[in-house]
C-alpha cells in the first residue's frame, strides 16, 4: 500500500505544482497526469486557499475531482472548505472559472468514482472512509486529452 504523505509534505509538493502550473499556463511535469487548481474559501478563516488536483470528465462533459488525500484517514481541508462554501475558483489550462462545487451522492458518486479509480484503488486500501466525489459545475469541458480517463491520484 502507498504511504500517506504528511500535511507538510502535501503543502511543499502542492506549492511546487501550483507555481509550475501558473508559470506554464496549466502544464505541469509532475504529477504525471493533468491537473487543475481549485481555490476554496476557508470555513473558519475565510482565507482563500489553492490546491492542485487531478480531475476527470464524465460522459456529459462535467469536470469532477475526488477528495482522496492519498487515502489519508481524514478528508482534505479543501473538501471541508467547499462544504461550507460551494463557490470555488477553478484554474484549468490557461483559463480561470467561477464554479459551484456539488458533492455527489449514492449511485452518481459511485459511478463517477469507479470511472477514475477502477476496482482496485490503492488509496482506498489505506482507509475505511468513502472518498467524496465533487462535480465542479460551471467549468467548461476541457480539450480532448486534457483529462484523466484511467485511475488517478488526487489530493
Notable characteristics:
26% strand; 155 residues; single chain; 3 helices; 7-stranded antiparallel sheet; disordered C terminus; Pnp Oxidase, Chain A; 7 strands; alpha+beta
Fold topology:
Elements: H1 7-23, E1 35-41, E2 48-54, E3 56-57, E4 63-66, H2 77-84, E5 87-92, E6 95-103, H3 106-117, E7 133-137
Antiparallel strand pairs: 1-2, 1-5, 3-4, 4-7, 5-6, 6-7
GO molecular function: coenzyme F420 binding; oxidoreductase activity
Family: Belongs to the F420H(2)-dependent quinone reductase family.
InterPro entries: F420H2_quin_Rdtase (IPR004378), Split_barrel_FMN-bd (IPR012349)
Tell me what the structure shows.
There is one protein chain. The protein has helices at 7-23, 77-84, 106-117, and strands spanning 35-41, 48-54, 56-57, 63-66, 87-92, 95-103, 133-137. The protein is of the alpha+beta class. A hairpin with a 2-residue loop joins β5 and β6. This is Deazaflavin-dependent oxidoreductase (Nitroreductase family). Pfam families: F420H2_quin_red (PF04075). Belongs to the F420H(2)-dependent quinone reductase family.
Question: In short, what is this structure?
Answer:
With 155 residues, this protein is an alpha+beta fold.
Structural class: alpha+beta
The portion of residues forming beta strands comes to: 25-35%
Radius of gyration: 14 Å
CATH level-4 homologous superfamily = Electron Transport, Fmn-binding Protein, Chain A
Number of strands: 7
Morphology: globular
Helix content: 10-25%
Return the string of H and E elements. HEEEEHEEHE
Contiguous low-pLDDT stretches (5 residues minimum) are 147-154
Number of separate domains: 1
Please give the order of strands in the largest beta sheet.
2-1-5-6-7-4-3
CATH structural architecture: Roll
